[in-house]
Amino acid sequence: MKFNITTIIGLVLILIIIGLIYYGVYYLKKKTREFSRQVFGTDSLKEGFDTIESEYATTPKSVSAMTSLYLPRITKDFPDFSYDEMKTKAVNVLTSFLLGLATFDVGALTEGNSELKNKLENTINIWKTKSQKPHFDSIKVHRTELSNYTKKDGRCIITFQSSVQYYQYVTDDVTHQIVSGSKDVLYQSKYEIDLVYIQNRSLLADEHIANSALGVNCPNCGAPITNLGAKFCEYCGTGVVEVNIHAWDFDDVREIRR
Predict the structure, then answer these.
(1) 12-23 residue pLDDT tens
(2) Nearest Cα to Cα of residue 164 among 197, 191, 146
(3) 74 pLDDT band (50/70/90 cuts)?
(4) N or C: which end of the chain has fewer CB within 10 A?
(5) pTM, to two decimals
């Protein structure tokens, strides 16, 4: 069998190309293993990314811990403010809000003003129009701290921030199949929960909120208590030392996606 020069050169070039491809693949794999070892401590990139995903799913989100800054200001304005009690209530409001969303039941919300209940009801209705249902299984709150304290437009607003985990997934209402999320992978998130106090009703732009949001009245004559941290009714002089803790109400729950 005879080969001409052109054929021989062609075969040599093909072998060279094959050799270069093989070397390139070998070199790339080598560098990939070295990179994976340096970054993940393993030869496999997939194994490394799986490890990161697992750590991300089990590592709690950090919260904006400003308790040491804001709590002294709050207790100065409201000497009877019970931080531990309100913190516990904030956690209960958060978990009951999520459970209410998962069960499509506004009644599951343990407490909160009309604005918060309306928000839950509206969110439920949005999911219903999609014919989908969100699920929050095995809810666990890792940490809760004060993140803000503001006084504006007749309101005092205390904001708690919570780090929370759960198994989050969404199912189709008709097929009951999972359309997003997973029953097996934890999801880490954080939420803010607003606690509001009507400082001065006359400053509120919304008359409905001013009259019904918190309903703080003198236990003797029934007159509205309008001043921040009032100790006595301005109309009859009756002591209202315990009014502050009853004046606070939960106003909002929102997820912080960052």
Answers:
(1) 788 888 888 887
(2) 191
(3) very high
(4) N
(5) 0.67
